[in-house]
Amino acid sequence: MSRSYIQKWTFYLDGTIEPTFAFTAVQNGCVSKAHYHNAYWRFDFDVDGFPQDVLDRFLFFIFWAGRDTVGTELSQPRNPFVGYVWRVRDKITGRGYIIAPGPEDGIADGFGVADAWDLAYHGNEIDRRSDGQRRTYGQLQEQ
């Protein structure tokens, strides 16, 4: 079976980043069934250096809005009734980035588990825990 995966990144002058992930496969009985691919990207936002970075989460629900500062690692499923926007900022300078889901972003299914994760910076970590074992998206806290 042959598959092709194509990643495309479009960077706009207003700071918007638009990722696109395309999939193809040959005609074959095992790939002709309708199914979804979940694509996730990992961004490392070091705003003026990582030690003073903080993540704020803004929630919007009909006539209510709230904000909290995330103090630990967490996952966030997307909810069609509650909107959310993230802000990564440096506590000293106040500089930062806004991270907002796009209008065409889907909602994670049972396989995808969540739509966004806030993972703390660990200098020795890419996708493995400090003990060398592969880190899964469900393992949010370092042991």
Structural topology:
Blueprint: E1 3-11, E2 17-25, E3 53-61, E4 64-70, E5 74-76, E6 83-90, E7 96-99, E8 116-118
Antiparallel strand pairs: 1-2, 3-4, 3-6, 5-8, 6-7
Give your account of this protein's structure.
This protein is an all-beta fold and 143 residues long. It has a domain at 43-118. Helix content is 0%, strand content 36%. The protein contains no helices and 8 strands. The strands form 3 sheets. Strands 4-3-6-7 form a 4-stranded antiparallel sheet, with no helix packed on it. A two-stranded antiparallel ribbon has the order 1-2. Strand 6 (83-90) and strand 7 form a beta hairpin. It is globular, with a radius of gyration of 18 Å. It starts with a strand and ends in a 25-residue tail after the last strand.
Radius of gyration: 18 Å
- Based on secondary structure, the structural category is mainly beta
Helix fraction, binned, reads under 10%
The helix/strand series, from N terminus to C terminus, equals EEEEEEEE
Number of strands: 8
Unreliable stretches, pLDDT < 50, 5 or more residues? none
Percentage of residues in strands: 35-45%
> Going across the major beta sheet, what is the strand order?
4-3-6-7
Query: What kind of assembly state do the chains in view correspond to?
Result: single chain
Helical element count?
0
Q: What form results from the Cα inertia axes? A: globular
Distance between the termini: 39 Å
Average pLDDT reading:
76
Largest β sheet strand count, sense and barrel closure: 4 strands, antiparallel
